[in-house]
Write a structure and sequence with these properties.
Four copies of one chain form a homotetramer. Chain A is of the alpha/beta class. Chain A has ten helices and 15 strands. In chain A, the strands form two sheets. In chain A, strands 14-13-12-11-7-10-9-8-15 form a nine-stranded mixed β-sheet. A six-stranded parallel β-sheet of chain A has the order 3-2-1-4-5-6, sandwiched between helices. In chain A, α4 (83-92) runs parallel beside α5 (107-120). Chain A is globular, with a radius of gyration of 22 Å. The two termini of chain A are 39 Å apart. At the A-B interface, β7, β8, β9, β10 and β11 of A face β7, β8, β9, β10 and β11 of B.
Chain lengths: 350, 350, 350, 350
């Protein structure tokens, strides 16, 4: 395989459901890729997605795709339960793989994928889409350059009405977004080390439709996620408190997605004539909303996949990142089973 | 004591700090009350609160107040740690008592107050202010008349910057609002029965400045509170999901404080040729924002106190309601000490 | 030409600038149309718009398109100044025509187009896109069924930063949206009959970048437009006051695009013992936000064009509607030249 | 009269209607003032406003007040039509006067007041309350120090439901707010020089309930006011476009009242090989929301009145400022009578 920049790489998308069409659109629009196949058990649906006149072929047979030598990578956007099986077949056929989040439906399966990819020197990339948005890049920069100071807490609300999934609960459906963002934004020694989770299923779906995760971060701070399929309105808001600055990210407000506040609470212990006293002071300064470019994150994902392949280096959101997300999801599962007890990553790791 | 409607009742306010001035203003403006005293250790502060020219007398001596036979009731707005001592002295001097939330700084203390009041046939009322707002009355009506259907979950966010309290943590400071609202709005068999709490103190205040409470409600649904002194912006938003309707209460949006959505998720198990299948359908109907009157809740509080005294009946938010809030606060304390384990009301009750 | 429903109609788009790509996307996605050509002087741009692999041919030669007998309709999305020339050539070649707003760059030109289309029995349709949105349909329904009562005033704000056009001023750029909406929503006898316009050019663009239009409606009420290329934020808000209900349409708030208020002012003249007195009462009732479907308006435009052609009837937003918009634009031009004097449609009509 | 800082000045308020109680509250709370009288034809209303126990005396007789030698100033908050008569009596009794906006109900009346005050060396101050708010002070600072660059346009929306006034139209009711703000914020040579006004009375109130004013500013820019008593929602939003920065002032958003955008449009005329060409570029930078203190503007008004009296200097919003507002209101009146023709300040000035 000649993987120079100049020639588009052949790619196939598997899965024409909710997310697949977005992958199709971005691969088709990219100069780096030649989208050769869209595979779905429902061939009519796949045909509708690519359009009457597209050169992309439609099939319900993965083998046909893997038999096409021009296909160097496969993007897997099937239901979560089938990620492992599909991805594994592709890896074993020596194709690079991009997998929709979550990487697999269990930590064990995820590890299997990472191992096989490593053994064969293939790129295994997770489609952690948010990590390719301008707003998350900006936040990562603020964390890295110390503008926020020490992180005191993170609170994320990700709620809306539906879609109630049949095969996975609300944690496995929505938390991967937040967990992958935390993984990307935080320094390695500040990543989550334990999870306490509470879920509830008030509509009888068979698994949690409303859930709360308390994540203990390395260093002692705490992150919290509210995940909910039963909210009348859509909310996508993250608060991040830092010792220097604090921010609010409201992803549904394109005119002011990110607000950075020069606010905070400072405590100082004073010794007032032998009497220890805590003095609290508040900073309540200005707010700045940076100007962020509007660009589609998924375009960055498909470019990063091409770059990782051609430069023979791990992708920015590689299999290891996907595994760390899976570890936390497993912690959440175990915690819910144990009545909300905090479960450490170490526990599920062994 | 002659307590007819026609003559104003004598009252004293103890505490001229954050909340006291509001009580002073409302007692002074009420035709039902004659505000005779404002008591504070800082007499200058008290004098400034009543104003140069007010007939209300200022003192730092509670005995002076209790020696005034025209005083039939005392409103206690001192720091939480002193509620019990002050209230007890007033009750033992045969005065009716209105206590700022929380009723006491421990469940044991609260019980003591309730007992003494009961023994002496005195009114003991908690200033659960929110229960006297038009919006909470409206929500209570929606729950009672079944308009919301079965309650599926409740989620409340009560966050802002400061004030970091020295004597109580963020749970004891902010949760009484939400817990008293739940107590008022929910039918007795749906009230909280257990609490799992997670707190964090990233600024070194000596107690939690950020906390999350998961409340198990009678009947199995779940309520969740986010309480935070370290948020750059103020948020006061409650989501309530019901099987018929859902609502969003945004207390900071006076133009649309309450939004009631004809939305929801319905699950139906179908038998499709022997194969059990769960069918999910979504209602995504209109939203109605009722017109709510704008009136000060505290005016309702002081009127209710006068009514309870003259009608010799328990106040709407009586000592028992205050105790139920204290029980849940104690559950939260114990849960935080036990690493987030869910603690039942029954446990703390004995 | 056989124009049965079963076979897609051949169409060409002329102009690959700002709006053309949207037309291309919607014609390509429609089962009613076969998009055969995209024409632009910049062929590379046109090629990029249709995509590497599309069957739609690209050209810079309109004659080539008009020489293709399978093309029954042409959509014109060129700069406003060229609408007339391009549309006229298409009509004279016996093609149905859809023209981007405004229909032409002068009333005289617009009339010429309408005449030629009428003489040849061709469909001439204006792309008044907003008239095909769910929200405008809903408002039209409220007006028609009397739910709003008598219309008291309409106020629309359509402002944002840029794009400062070189060939047309802000009135010709933005007002066609509002004027076409008014034309669609109001009964014929309530349509605008006169315009007073004020414009200003604080950046030296050579024509108005900020403008205000006061429209006198038939029956005496008043509509007002604020049009502005120099606003730091984008606002798209319309207030409509009716004697029964009032509404706010905020097009940038997809979660609550339309709010209908049971509010109003009622005046009654009373005779109080011989003394005439005006009694004012206020209704301040609930607000309802109807659930509106999310669908792309332009899909409705291309379907309506196909329907009008096959059913041999005028399109919903036909040439006559386009002319009425042009009449008002000419009134605005003349009013600005006359220092803001109100100019009637009758004046420009003759 | 001894007017040292140390002793409070005696003051009386005339009018206990909508605004009077606010004046009463602020004079009573101020250490600079001794509020001796509240005068209203409805003595019961006045008594209710001061409260049962206040030392402020209540009367319906202005002579009684003017007979009290301790009263050095009178604040007039009666209906607009009576401002002149009441203020004149006070000035002629050698009292300093604060008048509710508008200063008088005609320009001629206003001039009379200014003359009499000047002749007698008395302070005549207009209660242009907004000029004492932190946000308007901040904006004035931005204009003065050049941070906004040249002002390109100002657009203000001041709408809500009611109160429909009987004696004055919506322009005289609401425009004084905006006109006094413009007067305060703009440099003298940039103040309004002409007004074109359009009003409408769709409910039959006898005068305009909806009005639009186009103000030509000195230097050529334009300001626009939308004034409306018939809006279902309250809006208080001002846009100000400057050549360097632009701002949005949303007075109903206390959490972000002022937003300052580093945005704008720059035009440059280039000479491209003999062909003149206008190049447009857009700045779309960050937004800053300054931290503004929350303090009651009226407290600043009563302090300024005391300062002006003791320092024997004109008040910040003096009679001359009140006259300039009256001139513009008269321009608006004449413009509405003349069908919207622009009327210059010079015309009404002579």
């Amino acid at each position: 395989m000649d993987l120079t920049h100049t020639e588009p790489l052949g790619v196939a998308v598997v899965g024409a459901g909710y997310w697949g069409p977005n992958l199709v659109r971005n691969f088709a629009a990219s100069g780096r890729w030649d989208l050769r196949w869209l595979c779905d058990l429902d061939r009519d649906r796949a045909a509708a997605v690519v359009g009457r006149t597209s050169p992309t072929r439609v099939t319900d047979d993965l083998d046909l795709i893997l038999g096409d030598p021009a296909v160097v990578a496969v993007a897997v956007a099937t239901p979560a339960a089938t990620h492992t099986a599909v991805a594994l077949r592709c890896l074993e056929a020596d194709r690079h793989v991009l997998v929709e989040k979550p990487l697999a439906s269990s930590l064990a399966d995820g590890r299997k994928l990472v191992e096989v990819a490593a053994d064969r020197g293939l790129i295994l990339m997770c489609d952690h889409t948010y990590c390719y948005t301008p707003v998350v890049s900006h936040i990562a920069g603020l964390v890295t350059d110390g503008a926020l100071g020490d992180i005191q807490y993170i609170d994320s609300v990700r709620v809306n009405l539906g879609l109630v999934q049949g095969d996975i609960d609300v944690v496995w459906d929505l938390a991967p977004h937040d967990l992958s963002i935390l993984d990307f934004v935080l320094p390695p020694d500040r990543r989550p080390v334990a999870v306490a989770a509470h879920g509830s299923d008030p509509v009888g779906a068979g698994h949690a439709c409303v859930a709360y995760l308390v994540l203990e971060l390395g260093g002692g701070a705490c992150a919290h996620l509210h995940l909910n399929w039963l909210s009348p309105t859509k909310i996508r808001t993250t608060l991040l408190g830092g010792s220097r600055q604090m921010l609010v990210w409201d992803d549904l407000n394109p005119a002011q997605r990110l607000s950075i506040y020069d606010r905070g609470v400072d405590l100082r212990v004073a010794d007032d004539e032998g009497r220890r006293q805590t003095l609290v002071s508040y900073r309540s300064g200005a707010m700045v909303a940076p100007s962020l470019p509007e660009r589609e994150a998924l375009a960055g994902v498909v470019t990063e996949l091409a770059d990782a392949i051609t430069e023979r280096r791990p992708a920015r959101t590689d299999g290891a990142a996907g595994l760390r997300v899976l570890e936390l999801l497993e912690c959440a599962d175990r915690s819910m089973q144990a009545g909300g007890r905090s479960v450490t990553v170490e526990e599920v790791g062994n």
